[in-house]
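Exam revision sheet. Question 4 asks you to relate a sequence to its structure. Input first:
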Amino acid sequence: MNISNCFKTLAFSALLSTAATSASACTNYIVGKKASVDGSVMVSYNADDYGMFGHLCHYPAGTHPKGTMRKIYDWDSGEYHGEIPEAPVTYNVIGNINEFQLSIAETTYGGREEMVDPTGILDYGSLIYVALQRSKTAREAISVMTSLVEKYGYCSEGETFSICDPNEAWIMEMQGTGKGSKGVVWVAMRIPDDAVCAHANQSRIGKFNMKDKKNVIHSKNVISYARKMGWFTGKDADFSWKNTYAFPDFSGRRFCDARVWSFFNHWQKGFDRYLPWALGKDANAEDMPLWIVPDRKLSVHDVEMCMRDHYEGTALALDSTNVGGGVYQMPYRPTPLTYKVDGKEYFNERPVSTQQTAFTFVSQLRSWLPNEIGGILWFGNDDANMVAYTPVYCGNTVQPECYNTPGADAVTYSDKNAFWVCNWVSNMVYPRYSQLFPELKAVRDSLDMSYFAAQKEIEAKAQVLYASSKAEAVKYLNTYSNDKAQQMLAAWHDLGRLLIVKYNDMAVKKTKDGKLTRSVTRPGYPASFAKKLVKETGDWYAVPEKK
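Answer key, structure tokens:
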């Protein structure tokens, strides 16, 4: 991978090798075509890590002479790993979707430390973008990814991949076979068309039917390697991938599977039966299924809202009135996830939506439309709760300036860059959440709804253009995508200026006839916080009663 072409980052925080410590990373949701309102396959991704700079990458389609080699740089750190032969033909990739509506996402779960092979050439991130450039379907991507790592080695920790096209959705899990081995074990399962699936930094595949060749694909050594290592001695039919290679301990359940539980809980009644599993403290709790059939079908907007989740309305809710949320009930918490008080360890909840998100997307994949019109990457550059998702069509060849800003990076601010402008606004909102978030939400939701409202007309026009000129249709959608992204950036600039002016110095300027006035109100403490403060301080701040 040419690192300059893709996500420009500082090195991620060092990835740790257990579910407990890698729980700071990402979330994926997958929706089968019969589980969506319009028949689309969907996959979502929150790319989470501190220090990460979000960027919408682009790899143009190309042809490559025989003997051309491709240099592989680690997606996280930029470290050079080696090179592999380039494919004769590569496809257009914009973000995490290619011109054939193939979309791939991931979450890291770590697994057994002794399975990591640092001598392998391919890391999980490079593997994704190489596969997107070489594959037309999900099944082909699985074949490309697994054949490459089996030949050149896999250097990352345990990884779960979401691999989706307009017709099929798959989940694949992969780990190495130890230092210097250049080996790999993996298993992939097709998600039923009427189901939804999720993973969030904890291995999710348990038992699988090795005889179901249509819906289950795996490495030849998937069980024999575990037997060789002495980790599994039972019958093949009883083999569980996650229980063998990445057992779900407390942190794997509470910090990771809890996000899966929250997603499923939105879409199936009675899912609170699995709350003890998500809470992580009961070793005998009932495990969750890998996928569920939702009670109702999901839209793109539904998935976007799930990516914005903070466990609202559940036992794990972070928008409560406890002291962790501060004065203004902030559903975010300081990191790291755990901390100590008087020698005892405590933890914070880890919700889907988090301040460490560098970019987020929801891929919408539609089989009944030409690929260039059917595939959309709904993209945002910051915490999903704090951004509007703008449409990026899969045939696009030019990124909007705000998602690909010259000079902007992890340590260089630019007011032309969406990552930095959105972070500027969100970091104003976090500490005064209940007061300021309604202003952001109004702008966010208005933009989201405007994009959905325009979609039918835009795509109808694109289809007319497509009938006579595919190139003109692609150009039209590219221009539309870029215009919407820049519109979002302008709206966020306006929002940031409004928040500074209206909520200056902990007072709030009054509004008259839609305009701010010089007159202010001083709202003081929210009632819930005032009660907590008095309870903690007693009469220390009590005003003496007049006698």
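Marking note for examiners. The two ends are 78 Å apart (CA to CA).
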